[in-house]
Amino acid sequence: MADLLRLLLRVAEKAADVARVCRQEAPLFQLLVQEKTGDDKNKKFVQDFKTLADVVIQEMIRHDIGVQFPEMEGFIHGEESNKFENGLGESVAVTVCGTQQETAALLATVLDGNHTAASLLARAIHQDPATIDAHTDSLTVPLSPSELGIWIDPIDATSQYIEGREEVLEEGRLAPSGLHCALVLIGVYVRSTGEPVMGVINQPFNHKDPAGGGWRGKHFWGVSCGSINVCSVSRPEAAPGPGLSVVLSSSEKPVVKEALSSLCGPDKLMYASGAGYKILCVIQGLADAYVLSEGSTFKWDSCAPHALLRALGGGVVDLAECLRTDHLMELTYHQPDTECKGAERWANRGGLVAYRDCSQLRSVIAPLRDKL
Q1: 301 belongs to the catalytic site
Q2: How does 23-61 read in b/e, with b if 16+ C-beta sit within 10 Å?
Q3: Cβ(216)–Cβ(207) under 8 Å?
């Protein structure tokens, strides 16, 4: 498990570099954000490039894990399909090839012959990032990779990543929107039970280098298996003052906002973008809980941060189940909903509550009873 964690930290950093390269290199940035009009033959592809950035990251992570742990192949799941149609109407499957040159050639077929952009992407994919020292050598967990599966969200909060706003962060406050909300999420679960046991989160746009002005990232990780609970984040101190702090989506139902406003008080009901980022806010102690009443998140959104919360003594529960039975049912990650099709099979359909403290969880759920 120590070897797997080191690998996940490494590939998450590679993924963060790809995300930064797509914004920093002019040929890629133009494809990422430009809205072409009129009869431009590349109009469809320009829109698709937003997804291609996700897919390139996802397939790079899948490739690197499969090389080191071939027993995990077939159990490495991602948010995106890797199939694209180029300007000639040809269907191309995006994969990572054995060499940088081969990957660049493949990407050029997807990019309608844009060899400059393809080469920049391929170079980022095949780079060898600096080793991240997470002090994991002594980590011993009684699980083997053959018992585990993985969920990848290559860029969570893609809309914030595309828009690219650079918000000024206040110390101890969450970012309501902007590049800070875009995250790389890699979660590990037990195949037989669906229990999340390891998570890696990389925040590619955490801060800017004072010297060079370029973006620098930050990584977070956690392992929770039986009595073993280790996290790169210390358990936050309780926030001063009365009332709990809760983070929501700005599109949350008015009835939920109203029910929680009396619990939280005027300054402790907050809003932010990105499901992964909102759970990260709970992990960091910027909020006590994250509530979502809709089934609009998926296993790839919650698996990685869920593992970190478990390592801190918290978790992520199914909101609808809590309201219906008073049973705090943690989300699991191994079984699709057979009543649904496509991505919806992996939706967290009952909504969710992410929390650090069980007593706070019950306080958050109480005002929602009979409201939903």
Answers
A1: yes
A2: bebebbeebbeeeeeeeeebeebbebbbbbbbbbbbbbb
A3: yes
Percent of the chain with pLDDT over 90: 63
Pair type for strands 289-292 and 246-248? parallel
Q: Are 139 and 5 in contact (CB under 8 A)?
A: yes
153 is catalytic: yes
Provide the token pair at 222: 């956690």
CA nearest neighbour of 357 among 309, 307, 296:
309
Residue 290 pairs with which residues in a beta bridge? 247, 354
Among residues 25, 64, 80, 153, the one annotated as catalytic is 153
DSSP class of residue 41? T
Active site residue 51: no
Q: Which of 48, 195, 301, 318 is an active site residue?
A: 301
Q: Are 287 and 247 in contact (CB under 8 A)?
A: yes
Average pLDDT over residues 214-237: 90
Determine whether 158 is an active site residue: yes
Is residue 251 within 8 Å of 340, Cβ to Cβ? no
Tell me the per-residue pLDDT of 126-152, one tens digit each, with 9 for 90 and over.
988 766 766 766 777 888 999 999 999
Which one from 17, 25, 59, 79 is the annotated catalytic residue? Answer: 79
What is the rounded distance in angstroms from the CA atom of residue 276 to the CA atom of residue 93?
Answer: 27
Q: Is 120 helix (H, G, I), strand (E, B) or coil?
A: helix
Q: Which residue is catalytic, options 25, 64, 156, 318?
A: 156
- In the numeric block, which tokens belong to residue 333? 């990650």
- How far is it, in rounded angstroms, from Cα 235 to Cα 318? 23
For residue 35, what are the contacts with CB-CB under 8 A and spacing of at least 6? 46
Contact 253, 247 (CB under 8 A): no
Instruction: Check if 155 is active-site.
Output: yes
DSSP codes, 112-177: TT-HHHHHHHHHHHT--PPPP----TT---S--GGGEEEEEEEEESHHHHHH---PPPPTT---SS
Q: What is the pLDDT of residues 44-61, one digit of tens each?
A: 444 456 577 888 899 999
